[in-house]
Write a sequence for this structure.
């Protein structure tokens, strides 16, 4: 087929009208019915091969509505997670390991839309179900108690397997709780807190994260206020079926092991002598 010449589009339109009336139409050189339709009407004809000089035709297409997928927000995609801010308080702390002064623990639980506040005094009475092994009231024992009670809440009151982050401002307490540092003092308390950490980790991942104290962090400040409430003797705790689990206090010793008796040179010699006699 010869290359189509440039033809007035109005002429092509008239020829198409004549063709539609049944008239025999003599198409211009290089043109056919399909090519004429394509130029005038913009029809897509699969059998048509437009010439090099054919003008492109733009089809007007009415856009149909498109349903777009709704992308979930980051918070919706994020896994469920518990965050617990802990803090301790000992207003009369003088650094004495022998002083049973007023001290308190406090923490804030953030679980979904929930904000839960707990606090209480550091207990020295071995018969009290809240006793964790403290023999003195200091900043360190208060801080370690706050982590211990937060872990105890996870064990006793949190029934899901959601990951938990413990946010602390006392590096001493966090390192002792995780067994990173070896406790030289407060060994019974350290053993109890480490025991609760093992129990909590058996049900969920538990990680620790440092937050600087008195830095304006909203939740750390709130945990600090809770600890002050505890140091004043006030108690706000979760419903505790664990009263039965932890009475009397020797149940904690059964759970986490009794403190080993110190070995002395004399006792070792006596044991050796006893074996020799036997």
């Amino acid at each position: 087929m010869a290359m189509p010449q440039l033809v007035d589009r109005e002429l092509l339109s008239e020829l198409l009208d004549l063709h539609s009336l049944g008239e025999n139409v003599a198409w211009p050189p290089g043109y056919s019915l399909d090519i004429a339709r394509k130029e005038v009407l913009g029809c897509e004809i699969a059998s048509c091969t437009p010439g090099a000089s054919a003008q492109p035709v733009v089809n007007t297409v009415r856009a149909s509505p498109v349903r777009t997928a709704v992308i979930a927000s980051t918070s919706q995609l994020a896994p469920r997670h518990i965050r617990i801010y802990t803090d301790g308080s000992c207003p009369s702390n003088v650094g004495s390991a022998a002083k049973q002064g007023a001290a308190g623990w406090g923490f804030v639980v953030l679980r979904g839309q929930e904000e839960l506040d707990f606090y209480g005094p550091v207990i020295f009475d071995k018969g009290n179900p809240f006793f964790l092994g403290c023999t003195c009231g200091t900043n360190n024992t208060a801080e370690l108690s706050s982590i211990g009670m937060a872990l105890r809440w996870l064990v006793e009151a949190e029934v899901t397997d959601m990951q938990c982050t413990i946010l602390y401002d006392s590096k001493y307490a966090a390192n002792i709780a995780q067994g990173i540092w070896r406790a030289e003092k407060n060994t019974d308390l350290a053993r109890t807190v480490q025991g609760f950490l093992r129990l909590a980790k058996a049900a969920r991942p538990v990680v620790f994260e440092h937050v600087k104290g008195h830095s304006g962090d909203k939740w750390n400040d709130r945990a600090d206020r809770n600890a002050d409430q505890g140091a004043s003797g006030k108690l706000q705790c979760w419903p505790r079926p664990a009263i039965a689990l932890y009475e009397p206090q020797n149940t904690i010793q059964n759970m986490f092991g009794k403190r080993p008796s110190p070995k002395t040179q004399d006792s070792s010699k006596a044991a050796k002598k006893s074996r020799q006699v036997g």
Q: What stands out?
A: The chain has two domains: 9-41, 77-256. The two ends are 121 Å apart (CA to CA). Residues 43-52, 56-79, 241-251, 260-275 have pLDDT under 50 and may be disordered. Residues 14 and 20 are 10 Å apart (CA to CA).
